Amino acid sequence: MTTSTDFLVNKAKLDDTRIADTDLGDLADGEILLEVEKFALTANNITYAVMGEMMAYWNFFPAEEGWGRIPVWGFATVADSRHPDIAAGERVYGYLPMSSHVVVQPGKVTDGTFSDMAAHRQPMNPVYNNYRRLAADPAHVPDLEAHRALFEPLFMTSFLIEAFMRREDYYGAKSLIMTSASSKTGMALAQVAKARSPEIERVGLTGSGNVEFVEGLGLYDRVLAYDAVGELDADTSSVVVDFAGNGKTLAAIHTHFGDALKYSCLVGATHWDARGQGGELPGPTPILFFAPDHVVAMTEELGPEGFAMEVGKAWAGFIGDAKGWVDVIRREGGDAVSETYATLLPGNASPRDGFILSL
Question: pTM value?
Fold first, then answer.
C-alpha cells in the first residue's frame, strides 16, 4: 500500500490550502502507480482552480468533499505496475495532480503513448487523459524537461488560438491585443503570431511594473500598461485575447474600441479575483476559448499526423526562444509548494519565475 502526499485547495476559498496524506490501497489488475517527479506551477494552473467547477477540472483527480487537487503538467516514474505492457521504472509526461503519487488505468497503449481509462476521467476531454512515454517520445529533450512542463500546455493553447484567428482572417482586424502580456501564455501567443501571422500588429498589455520586461522580450510591436489603453487608436480594427480575466480591463478595451473591436476571446484568469467586474460590455460578446475542443477539430481537419507535424514545427521554433524567457526555480516539499502557490494565486510572482515543484 502506498501513501500519497497531496496539496489540497478549498474549492470555495482558493487561498485556503493544506497538505494531507492519502492511502491509495493496492493496485488492481491493469493499473499502474505513478510517482510524481516534478511539475510546473504557473498562472495556467490558477485558472484550472478558478474554473474548477465550471470546466470540471476538479474531477480529474478527486479529493475529499469540499477540497480539490489542482491538475498540473509534469513528469512521473512508474513506481509499480499491474499492466502487462508497462513496466516499473518507465518515465512519462502528462496531466498529474499536485501529489506525490497517483494511480492510473492505462488503455489505448502504443509505443509512445497511453490514456488513463479510469471511469471518472472519461467524461472529460481525452486530450487531458493522454500520457507520453518518454522512451519513444520524439518531443522529449532531457535538458529541456523544465521548459516543457512550463510551456508546452500554454504553447498548445496559444498555437490553437493563433490557428483559429488566422483561419478566420482575424475577423478583418489589423491589431491583436493581448492582456497579461507578461504571462507565459501571452508570450507564447505573441511568439506564434509573430512567426505565423507577421502581418498582424501585436499589442501587449501588462502591469506598469512589467512593461520594461515585456518590451525586452521583443515579441510585441507595442507594449502598454493597462491604464494606457486610451493611447491606442480607437479606430483601428482589433481583436482582443484576454488572458488576465480582469473584468475592468476588458471593459476598458471594449469601451475604447466599441464597434472597431471585431472579436473578444476569453482564455485565462491570471487576475482571477477581478473576474466579472466589468459589467455589460459594448462591442462583441466575449467568447470563452476551450483549447481541447480545438485540438479535436484540428485533428479531424488535418488528421493526427498532419496535426502533429504542424504543432511540432511551431514548437521547435518556439522552444528555442522560450528558453531565455524564464529562470527555472526548483523547489521541493509541502512547505515549498504551499509558499509557491500562495505567491502565484494573487499574481505576485515575477514573470521571469518558472516554478518546478515536487511534494
Answer: 0.84
For residue 202, the tally of other CB atoms under 10 A from its CB is 21
Distance CA 267, CA 166 (A): 17
pLDDT along the chain (359 residues), means of 10: 94 97 95 98 90 90 96 98 97 97 96 94 89 89 92 89 93 96 91 95 95 94 96 97 87 95 81 47 88 80 80 83 89 98 92 94
Closest CA to 304 of 168, 133, 110: 110
Query: Does an H or E element contain 82, and which?
Result: none
149 close to 39: Cβ distance less than 8 angstroms: yes
Determine which helix (DSSP H) or strand (DSSP E) holds 150, and give its type and residue range: helix 145-167
CA atoms of 60 and 47, how far apart (whole Å) = 15
CB 6 within 8 A of CB 99: yes
Domains of the chain and any CATH numbers = 3-140+326-358 (3.90.180.10), 152-292 (3.40.50.720)
* Residue 355 and residue 41 in contact, taking contact as beta carbons nearer than 8 Å: yes
